[in-house]
Amino acid sequence: MKKHNFTLIIPSLNPDEKLSHTVQLAVEAGIGDIILVDDGSDAGHKHYFDELVPKYPQVTLLSHEKNLGKGAALKTAFEYFIKNRHDSDGVVTADSDGQHRMKDIIKCAEEMTNGEHAIILGCRDFSLENVPARSRFGNRATSLVFRLFFGMSVSDTQTGLRAIPFKYVKEMLEVKGTRYEYETNMLIYMSQKKLPYCEIKIETLYFDDNSASHFRPVRDSMRVYGIIIKYAANSLASAIVDILAFYLLGQFVFAGGGKIAVLLSTVTARVISSVVNFALNRKYVFDSHSNVLKTFFKYVCLAVPIMLISWISVYGLSKAMDFDQLGRTLWKAVVDTILFVVSFRVQRRWVFAEKSK
What we know:
Blueprint: E1 7-12, H1 17-28, E2 34-39, H2 46-55, E3 59-64, H3 70-84, E4 90-93, H4 102-113, E5 119-123, H5 133-150, E6 162-165, H6 166-172, H7 181-193, E7 197-201, H8 217-224, H9 226-253, H10 259-285, H11 292-321, H12 325-351
Parallel strand pairs: 1-2, 1-4, 2-3, 5-7
Antiparallel strand pairs: 4-6, 5-6
Helix pairs in contact: 3-6, 7-8, 9-10, 11-12
């Protein structure tokens, strides 16, 4: 039987007999190092962990006194791995509910040690009939968001089967998040740091329509899409500031309603709203610690062309197509939506980008 030089990490909350079966198959497959993380399971499920430790010397059990989330459980295992497994090739993370075939776990581990030593994502086929509707829709939506906002093509954004080479495990501790958003943030981090990755197809297994999943659709989706939601909220807040400032300036500062007064009100309001948007994005969306003046200069270098492109696109096509005000407004909505995505990607990759350590 072939021995494998990687660590299998399995985080679990309130497991059932599938955890025991998964560990048994792992041991039989020659996996000699398994880290289980009990993420605050209740008293009725503790025995599944307690039975495995004396039975299999390959198992190391780490425990949280209370439920901290899947991301926190993975980080606990990563910290232990870094301190105690210096000669390992890396880790493979897998779910405890039996959805990952052992052959796929080993396939990901072997692929990790070949070639470029990239991070391996075991990706499911969501076109199959046995995939629950909520899983199919949720993954397709998230994959589309990743393509649009992060320029990253990932067919299974929520896969729990990931093989991470030793040299990248420590970096995963820098990824923010403690619950399901952690796995999404990991992909964003990989995109930002340009870490190599590749996908391999794995068998798609679901049990009882995936009813055992602890994923909470509304709350956890908000966490997963957090960065996009905050970016959109900041843009909305800035638009409100822009309109309010335009009104107040026209009413009390540049009164009269003449051409110059309107121009000054428009430009000054846009400057005020841009400063607000910059400050909000810097702190709450991109969490940037770069020099403020340099970053703001880059922000202005982006904001001005974006504004000009919007104006030229709307004005030019409106003239060519002889749009009325409603047509111009609808076309402006289309243009600004596209620029919204473009601006996000440029801000993330250039304006607020952090230098690699």
